[in-house]
Amino acid sequence: MSTIKDVAQLAGVSVATVSRMINQNGYVSEGAQKRIAEAMTQLGYEPLNRRRLADLSMPTIALILPDITNPFFSELARAVEDVCQQRGYTAFFCNSDNQDYKEKSYLEALRKRRIDGIIYASNYLTQDELDKLEREKIPVVVLDRTSDEQKCTLIRCNNYAGAQMAVKHLLDIGCRKIAHIYGPQEIVTAQERLNGYEDFVKSFSWYTPSLMAPGHFQLDGGMQAVETLLLRHPDIDGIFAGNDFMAIGALKALHRRGIRVPENIAVCGFDGIKLAEIIEPELTTIAQPIYKMGEQAARTIIQQVESAEARSQSEVIEINVSLITRDSTRRD
Ligand code: RIB
């Protein structure tokens, strides 16, 4: 499929000149208009907007998410949908359940529907897949979780610094033996938070790796991790959970055992989902600007869909996290 760049090259003008002629927003000499029209005919080029008008469908963005049962992702989706509606785009949401095969089948379905752009929160996105999407001229913005070295636009938060912020806060309120409930280590965000915790505490005399237990980023995982940790270390007085879901599960398990939060054990989560404000005690957390990340991803993908430039630039947009102190660590 020819692109606006191919037309510009054949006509001997810039992409901007072709764009001005298509959108009729600026001067284009008669000679250039003639050459551009001939090039379009020769290449069978259909401008994006004319093609869309022809098939009378709004441009469409897909958001591929790993777990829509986790409010972090549904809050992201909210922001993406709001921006798409403001900009006249349709938003498709695909839930991959963290399954590679589901992601691949969604990609095939989206290709068949000539999706205009994809926002991808995945563990399995490979450089080969990114290269293939670029060859197909389908722009991709990756959200939250993938390794930095992949050639794409990546929007994420600073997980490592956020984890250290959580540990420092627990130490500042007087905790002297802090455990960590970690997410699946095949997910880079969980790895970075575990590394942030461990690098902070490994020099303390009380530290031992058995102070870390898996919670799978799930509510029941947080509950199970508390049972494991208290069997190993009944004297812990602080827990940093790698996401709010696991922290909420931890609160439930501590409550069941009659352990008072924060008096006996203080608990800090990570994400800043709205649920953290509603539960009792309200959860202290390291908040990701979830809505802002979704907005930024949607605006970035729409800008890439509407621009003719090559899109394989590697760009990491890292958004800061913030500590939100609530009752689960308030010991004043
Ligand atoms: O709660 C789900 C987690 O998966 C979030 O922390 C988010 O960062 C993603 O990695």
TrEMBL record:
InterPro entries: HTH_LacI, Lambda_DNA-bd_dom_sf, Peripla_BP/Lac1_sug-bd_dom, Peripla_BP_I
Alphabetical keyword list: DNA-binding, Transcription, Transcription regulation
HTH lacI-type domain span: 2-55
UniProt keyword annotation of Metal-binding present: no
Pfam families listed in its UniProt record: LacI (PF00356), Peripla_BP_1 (PF00532)
Organism superkingdom: Bacteria
Signal peptide segment: none
Transcription regulation among keywords: yes
Protein name listed in UniProt: LacI family transcriptional regulator
Species whose genome carries this gene: Paenibacillus aceti
